[in-house]
Design a protein that fits this description.
The complex is a heterodimer. Chain A has nine helices and ten strands. Chain A has a domain of 66 residues. In chain A, the strands form two sheets. A six-stranded mixed beta sheet of chain A has the order 6-7-8-3-9-10, with helices on both faces. By secondary structure, chain A is an alpha/beta fold. Chain A starts with a strand and ends with a helix. By secondary structure, chain B is of the alpha/beta class. In chain B, 68% of the residues lie in helices and 8% in strands. In chain B, a hairpin with a 2-residue loop joins β3 and β4. The C terminus of chain B is likely disordered. Classes of the chains: A alpha/beta, B alpha/beta. Chains A and B meet through α2 of A and α10 and α18 of B. Chain B: It is found in: Cell membrane. Chain B: This is FtsX-like permease family protein. Chain B: It is a multi-pass membrane protein.
Chain lengths: 254, 644
Amino acid sequence: MIEVKQLGKVYPGKVTEQPLTDINFRVEEGEMVAVMGPSGSGKSTLINLLATLDQPSWGSILIEGIDTATFKRKETTRFRRETLGIIFQEFNLLDSLTVAENMLVPLMLGSKKTKEAREEMQHLAKRLQIDELLDKQVDEVSGGQRQRTAIGRALIHAPRLMLADEPTGALDFQATKHVMELLAELNASGMTMVIVTHDPTVASYCNHVLFLKDGSIQTELFRDEPRRVFFQRVIESLSLLGGDEHHLSAIRPT
Amino acid sequence: MNITYLQYALRNIKRYQRLYYGYALTIIVAMTIATSYWNLVVSESFQNIAKVLSQLNQVIELTMFFVFIAEVIILFFSILFIYSTTYTMLEHRKNDLRIMRTLGSRFSHFLKYFMIEILIVGGLAITAGITLGVVLTKLMLLSIEKVMFLPRLTIEISITSFLVLIAGALLALLIATFLAIYRFRPDRPVRTRSRFRVRLSLIVQIGAMLVLFYGYFMAFTRQEVFLIVFPFVIFIGSFFFCRHVIPTLMKLYRPRRLSIRKLIVSEIAIQLRTNSTLVALGTILTSCALSAVGLVFIFQLIGLDLSSQNQFGLVYYEESITPSDRSKKIDQTMTKTFPDKYRQEVRLKSFKTRYVIPLSDYNRLMKHLRYEQRTLLKTQQTFLIPARPVQVKEVTSTMKKAKAEMEQAGYILEPMAEHGLLFGYNNRIETLFVVSDKAFAELNRPVARIRVFDTPSYTDHGTDRWTSWMSIVREIQSKAELGKDIATPYQLINETEDELDGIRIVRLVSFVVILLTVWLFVINASFLHVWMQMTAEQEQKRLKTLFALGFSKRSIQVFLFVKYGTVLMVPYLISIFHAWLLFQVILSGSSLEIGPFLQLSLIWIGIVTFCYLISILPLWVRYPRHLLKKSCESSMYPIPDSRV
């Protein structure tokens, strides 16, 4: 689904943004990938590039075999509208609209009929357990409900690739669990996902974890064991990531 | 290493520099205009013009009155602006303040943090404003010379007056800042409103609504009391419209299919509702500007009407036995340009500041002006003629002294001449007597002369004769200088049945109003700038979301253009509505029918709308473009500061 080759990104004159130096990885169709790393390791820059919201300085990103750098403006927009779903840490809902209207925003751009769109939205809301809140303004619902609304918005147009930036960063334990179970369920139905996170619990739901440090991928883990065991491996890798180079080689896949 | 208050303030100024731009700009413009007005108010030489050019007395008095009003308006709105901007900044920096409070900052600490920042930015802005004010004073004087047909004016600028001005400005700055910080109380945790306060607020709101509706009733029934309640009506009205009426109406718009139009409508509603106080203040300013310009239009009509009967006259004064080259040149020019106009030479002799003119010269002028001619039966008889405006109304001590001196010299005093014509040609002439030709000839004094010319009147306004006349006036103005003690070599007299010199007053009021309007637009644009800065961070986030959801750049551009266009124009339309109410009440108060003013009103609205559009253009066009660039093209994540 995604193939990233020798990807690099620098921000001339900006010290706040971490440059990416040499990123290489593959995401297979139907995979659920977590990108982990300390603050300032370049996670956000990477997700920006994957979402075509930014252009790489060198290297290439191939999504479904097509280099995103060759996209024209209209194609980029269509790619985001049809293929991509994005979830933000701070939900980024539109305060002026209701829960239902927020979920319907992506459909404004499509040609789906009103009745169909509404039915789909109601179905999704039921699945996300927010069907009781549809007519409420977003500032009248809780953090978890807001994130579920945001997920609903990202899912309404049935994207093939979901990018999530710290989707549980602003949620409590219960809400995190609920959101991650939902994302795992969606992944099981065939949706490819890339999740940026700090939280090992979130990473443990994924089947592939990339560890980013100082702008490059230091190591990656593949899950072939139960979630609890995988969680331990993630924790171990994270603790080694803070150490020196020879510790990292211990977890580097051969 | 410790961080000092000064370092902290400097860093905050740098961090919030965009928010401070509008703040500093408003203070600079306010100070520039206030300084130039202040220079006029404290300038002795400007006020001496009234004595020198006697018939200008009334105009100068009115000037001072309008300048005073303008100063009060500037002071009031400056305090209001500084207060609301500071409060907005406090809101904007709520997170920083919470941290400082957690670290143990007290009210006095917060005062220090902000006062230092405000004093640095405000101090620099005041200095820049005063410097520009001196330049503007020079330009103002040049303009006043042109619009009021005066000789060259020089105005001294004293250090004391500057110190008073700076002290006043700093005081206003500090009071407004203190009030804002005191109301915000960043040192106190968030408190829930007591039941008493909730009830009080409800009663105030109901009271405000009653005032508003009663105000509208008075406006529509054209009762003059509306003028008193106008400031309340406009504030409550704008607040009410932005906070309740428009958002509620917009909420009613519920299309079956969610569209970008619905998104824009709900965004507009929320923007107006959350920032209704700032919008209401901005609306007051725009309405004031609108009403002021409207009033100038009314004055223009009334003034032209009042002045239509006025007759100009040029008097050239020269204290020499033989006419100078300059006197000859003016004589030649006037004869060549206006051969049909009356010309006369009036001789005069002086005893220090007491001057005498012969009866024959006086009567020739009176005959031409169709005034009553006088006779003096005896050689030693004399009578006083007014030389200063005050002498028309009362007997001054100078006049009494001069009369006594004339009596001592053996003259018999006849009753004073009764006419509105003033002979105060020059500031040297304090009193003026008419004596018989024989007595004049017997006086052993050098002869001075005055050349009096009839010139085109206001009825010639707009014709070639008027243009020629103005070019002569400008030529004379460029060579004459009028200062505190300098004698003016010429004067334009205004011989009129009516005391009011409409044209000059209109020009003067227009001049003050134009400057004030410019300032009001600047301060309104600054209000809007602050408002947009406040919402910038949230707006960036919103745009990033839309962009990530697959909205094209073009549709986001349309979204921003329509949203900001409407958000900027709605308060303006509310202003137009209120200004129109005021305008029609003033018209009916002056017993004028609204009909003939309709066309004029449309012109007035057109001009002010154009000025308003110019003032908001950077906010409407450049600001969204900037937001778009920041939000959609560089990074999809919020920039962690407020800079836009």
